[in-house]
Amino acid sequence: MKIYNPLITILLALNIAGCGDSQKDKENYFSFDENAMKPMYQATDKVDLTLLNSKNKAIDSVTYIVNDQRISSVKGNGKFTLDLSGKKLGYQNVKALVYFEGDTISAKTRVEVASGIVPKLLKYTVVNTYTHDANAFTEGFEFFRDTLMESTGQNGKSYFAKIDYKTGKAYKKVDIDQQYFGEGITVINNKIYQLTWQNETGFIYDANTLKKLKTFTFDKKIEGWGMTNDGKNIYQSDGTEKIWTMDPVTQKMTNFINVYTNDSKIKSVNELEWINGKIYGNIWQKDAIAVINPQSGAVEAVLDLSALRAKVTNKEAEVLNGIAYNKKTNTIFVTGKNWNKMFEIKISE
Length: 349
Description:
Strand order of the largest sheet: 2-9-8-5-6
Distance between the termini: 100 Å
Structural class: mainly beta
């Protein structure tokens, strides 16, 4: 005679019931067909996204979310086309919420968007050549009225100063605490704003007296690189492809753009200058300046200044880094880290 144990029967039944796919298995039911996607798109493109259904599940509907914003919902596994017009340059994070057989699973991918503009190559002529302090590790460069303001880097050696650009001599200098590596500066509302490199700290000074008014902490965990302003907002770079918009009153970050050409991301955006509605940006380790649309991040033009680098005779000279626009003369002053020369140039197409 066989004796049946009811407990064993129950346990076996539970085990059989639990043999269905786990949540982790279900997450592999659906995925985007990334083989059908390009590595990079342009801002004028439309992208047809295909959702793969590896288990041939009966899909009720799919909701598509782009950068945390609901974009579309389709019945079944219907076609979804992502229109990139008006989208921010950089990565678009795409999520599909798939509703099927009383369950919901998400699938994710991302689409990289470059500018739809091919940058123009600008020309320049040298108007004047001036002496520049070869010991100045230039990080910020900007005119305040008729005075050239310069900030420098290196721990224990950082300062900012008012410079007589005709002689290259500093006639008023403020040293920064030795723990800080000084970075970009900009002057707005009669105040000087200055960044430090990796301390997530900035300073505000009175532009006339150079008296320190405030020390502030960065709103984001980023590095401090270059700085400029449009008279209302401050723009700052962080060593990546991003340029952040800062409210000068609160020092809070309000937005950002990603800097792209028509076929590539531009990393290491460094010292910045606002010139006639555009952001001119040095690119670290490149003796060139990118002219950037401040609304989109698109590089609209490029200025190759490698020929100027060749005229610098100081052996310790490093990369081009310093753009200061003189509104009165409509000329641009450029220099670099430890350059012994500064060049006044005019730009043309």
